[in-house]
Amino acid sequence: MDIRPIRSDEDHAEALAEIERLWGTPVGSPEGDKLDVLATLVEAYEEKRWPIEAPDPVEVIRYAISDLGHTQAELADLLGSRPRASEVLNRRRALTVDMVHKISSQWHIPADLLVRPYHLTERA
């Protein structure tokens, strides 16, 4: 297989088959170099073809609560009150810079995941 841009799902399948064939070749060998280049091309194609959106900040916080062992009570302690934590989780209050800093530093969540724009629920 000649190395060329991946422009279709057929090209993608061929590149994956070649990667499988080359898997385990020595780093720095001609085959290893070909494997590195093909892997880079496949990654670029997959990111363009099937992009994965980063979660919004509320989803990140909910994930930290549901899967990382944190609790809504801990969030309330970080944010200063249970109602404030509830408002954030229900998208009725936007995160402030201070809130982002506290959550990021205490829960070890990258701040860039918490400062992304997200929608708030409109109040009745």
UniProtKB/TrEMBL annotation:
<feature type="domain" description="HTH cro/C1-type">
    <location>
        <begin position="61"/>
        <end position="114"/>
    </location>
</feature>
<dbReference type="InterPro" id="IPR010982">
    <property type="entry name" value="Lambda_DNA-bd_dom_sf"/>
</dbReference>
<dbReference type="InterPro" id="IPR039060">
    <property type="entry name" value="Antitox_HigA"/>
</dbReference>
<dbReference type="InterPro" id="IPR001387">
    <property type="entry name" value="Cro/C1-type_HTH"/>
</dbReference>
<protein>
    <submittedName>
        <fullName>Type II toxin-antitoxin system HigA family antitoxin</fullName>
    </submittedName>
</protein>
